[in-house]
Amino acid sequence: MRIKTVTILGFGKWHDQTIDLNTDYQVLYGQNEAGKTTLTTFIKGVLFGFATAKQRYEQYVPKNGAQYGGELLVSYHDRDIVIRRISGKFGGDVTVIDQGKEFGADYLADLLAPADEALFTQIFETNQHDLNQIFNLKQADFCSIY
Fold first, then answer.
1. pLDDT tier, 55 (very low <50, low <70, confident <90, very high otherwise)
2. For residues 70 and 16, what is the distance between their CA atoms, to the nearest angstrom?
């Protein structure tokens, strides 16, 4: 599955935005408070569920009163699928549109399996702590196989 576009109705500082990711690689960079973490949290939220009030999501409630949520357009086995998640109970109301038919959360879970939010984070996110660990590596820390 490859994310082609991100459409944010409202999530934190982001609202009414469409971001094109239709290239092979993406690197998000910018100044502190530019919205990098908010964007990656939004993507994880659409895929795996938005944080609930008990999980302290207040910083992601849209700042301008826009509808909380949005959608991802993904490419999956040579077809485009829309994954939409809007505010609601238990992480938000999810709709998956595949070949003109609408499905729910179970269909999304089947599409993503066996990936979960923890695996997604490990693969696709690098934070300052991770970068510091990389920068602190010494030549002896690398293994060579001959």
1. low
2. 9
